[in-house]
Amino acid sequence: MILVKPIQVNDGVLLSSSIPEPDSSVGEVEWVAGTYNLGDRVIKSSTHRQYQVVASPDTADDPELGVNAVPATWVDVGPTNRFKMFDTANNTQSEATDITVELQPNQFYNSVGAFSISADTVTITVTDGGNVIYSKSLDMRSRPLVNGWYNYFFSSISFITRFILLDLPPTTSGILKLEFGGAAKVGTVTFGRQSVLGVAQYGTSAELLDFSNPSEDQYGNITYSNGFTAKLVNFDIKTEKTQMGLVFSELQSIGKNPAMWIGDPNDINDATAAYGINRDYQQTFDSPSICTVNLTVRGLV
Question: What is the pLDDT of residue 61?
């Protein structure tokens, strides 16, 4: 059972991005002093946020000040296209053709992952001192149902929507370069230091939370307004008693901040791998040497 505590991406960590800011291809416009009408939307590169006017009929306020005005004249409607992949929601996706980003946190990391991806290929490269110390290319197209010649020719091609790599060489100064090929969408990119919490046991379960809204008419017919889904994973973990204090401290330090959770490091494509928050935690000292940890992770939409 692996926990990866993410490093926050800010201007000091993001060395470069192929997505401009503002990005006119998705309709982004930089705020400049002036009067804006109800419904107008702008961005501020200094905050990497988008804002929309809610004052009627107009406002001349700075969006940063307007969001805290009483009554509010602007509302924050989310990150810019460049920074959507670095927020804490999978459903906000950075979109562009052939996205390339370079990150240098100047702190220890040995893992990287990305979720809610739509891309043909992903290439991950780490350079340190001008030398390539890690490189891997991933084909995000998959044909999981191929089990014979018929399926080889006629089964549909599906796309892998996430990746997790736990084999990066440990580094503090390495530059992490991520390249998403094709017409790409990226929901979340996260990287950081991995910690071993114990060994996930059989009995660990994963379920899907569906936030679709049902509507039932007078005849009993049900229709759904499609909503987002999120993963809920219940981990049953065994760990040595001598490590229980460290496990408790690690989970306490992360609080309700999102992280990567991997139940089986040998099979990171299974359903227990999630990006989310620690919803519940309980440890039981049920033997002199081996103890039980029950951990519930609520994935983010």
Answer: 97
The one-letter code for the residue type at 47 is T
**Residues contacting residue 8 through CB under 8 Å, at least 6 positions apart:** none
144 pLDDT above the threshold of 70: no
**Residues listed for the chain:** 301
**10-66 tens-digit pLDDT:** 999 999 999 999 999 999 999 999 999 999 999 999 999 999 999 999 999 999 999
Nearest alpha-carbon partner for 31 in 66, 83, 69, 68: 66
| Domain range list for the chain | 9-19+85-193, 199-299
pTM of this structure = 0.90
Here the tokens at position 64 are 């940063």
- Name the CATH topology of 9-19+85-193: Jelly Rolls (2.60.120)
